[in-house]
Amino acid sequence: MVKRFMSWLSDPLGRIGLLIAFLAVFSGAAFGLYTTQTAPPQPIQFPHALHVGLEIQCLYCHPGAYRQASAGLPTETKCWGCHQQLSKYADGTVALPAELQKLKGYVDAGQPIPWVPVAQVPDFVHFNHRPHVAAGLNCENCHGNMAVTGFTVAENPQVMNMGWCLECHRARTAEDPEKRTKLLDCGTCHY
Amino acid sequence: MTIELKIPEYSANWAEGEQQGKWGMAIDMDICTGCQACVAACAMENNIPFVGEADSGYGRSMHWIRTERFWEGEFPEIKMTPYQPVLCQQCGHAPCEPVCPAFATVHSQAEALNLQVYNRCVGTRYCANNCPYQVRSFNWRDYERPEPLPNQLNPDVTVRRRGVMEKCTFCIQRIHRAQDQAKAEGREVADGEFTTACAQACPADAIVFGRIDDPESAVSKLAGGARGFHMLEELGTLPAVTYLKGG
Questions:
Q1: In this complex, do A191 and B173 lie within 8 Å of one another by their Cβ atoms?
Q2: What is the C-alpha to C-alpha distance for residues B172 and B114, in angstroms, rounded to an integer?
């Protein structure tokens, strides 16, 4: 078997074949890795930077972060509540841009916008926004600066894994052993 | 690059006769009618799968709480013992914990409970074999939940997959929710403010849940009474569940 493989290798055609096989496997793996690192397609290309630039608070559209586990994604009526009042579109001087037409489509159909959440934890992790906001953390500490150009659709600035969670929990509870016990306990997040 | 491996050290800091733990439960066997409401409520609260007839026949039925009964005496003069709901006793010195090779069942230092970390569990089933109360159940399969049953899943509890051990958590999701609510309102969790699913469902109020380290709580008063005993007390597992009998 090995002998046959070696003799096959001495043949230039065999070498080319091996190279093609290697490239196929390598590019397949690279593509797979690439797809895990790209943002999923969203129903509407929402420009976070523009809305943050208009000084709209994060909590206006994601109010759940302040009082419950899930921050929530805005409904079509919440978006339209502001957007229908924009006078330049309302009086017809400027035509409704394509992305806002999509929004109007959802409003007219009475259907929710199928946003794809990007900042997610697995099922066996129970994350609660409220204590994190109460501890004085700002949204950008974990979700990145949405005002930076390029953040049209939200992308996680860091890998949200357990090491990253615990790094912060350790650093912030260095002086409080009781809090440290609570925040490093498995049962605080996994149940 | 060297990876520093830190293995959590298991230490049971307890003294003989000392009341252990933070959360405790008192179950009055004199009041319990064996109606199984706690069993049903637990299954609904904790997303426990429906195993089905075939697998139950192999002894693979899954419950975090069960109602036990025994017969006393020889045939003509038999007498039934009181019903005894058996759930994880949340031992202070738990036999399941030191045998886990994956550190999936660990002792919570913060809540003083025996945790089961599903994402760590590799399914060796050592813990279940070492549990003297036989309260752990293993997911032998991914049990089917036909529509519309997935709609009643509790979002606060992980849906376990095949090959994972599970057991009663003392409804830790309710503990966390009550603690979070109390903290948001800037106060301590009051006794009786929340309870476990089994205690909530019990129509006879035979199950009382609360802080065992607070001598003023309802559960401490019941557990400290003369009727209280622990299941298999001689094993020295320091259970957090106290049974009451002989009133």
A1: yes
A2: 10
Q: How confident is the model at residue B17 (pLDDT cuts 50, 70, 90)?
A: very low
Cβ pairs bridging A and B (under 8 Å): 52
**pTM for the model:** 0.84
* pLDDT (tens digit per residue) in B99-109: 999 999 999 98
Handedness of CA B81, B85, B88, B92 (dihedral sign): negative
Give which of A124, A118, A116 is closest to A162, Cα–Cα: A124
ipTM above 0.90, yes or no: no
What is the three-class DSSP state of B134?
coil
Give the nearest partner residue to B110 out of A122, A124, A182, using CB atoms. Answer: A182
Q: What region, left, alpha or beta, does residue B36 occupy, with left being phi > 0 and alpha being psi -120 to 50 degrees?
A: left
Q: What CA–CA distance (Å, rounded) separates B12 from B223?
A: 22
User: What is the tens place of the pLDDT at every residue in B25-80?
Assistant: 999 999 999 999 999 999 999 999 999 999 999 999 999 999 998 888 888 888 88
Structure tokens belonging to residue B187: 């106060």
CB atoms A186 and B169 under 8 Å? no
The sign of the torsion formed by the CA atoms of A164, A169, A172, A174 equals negative
Can you tell me whether residue A20 is helix, strand or coil? helix
B-chain CB neighbours of A122 within 8 Å are: 119
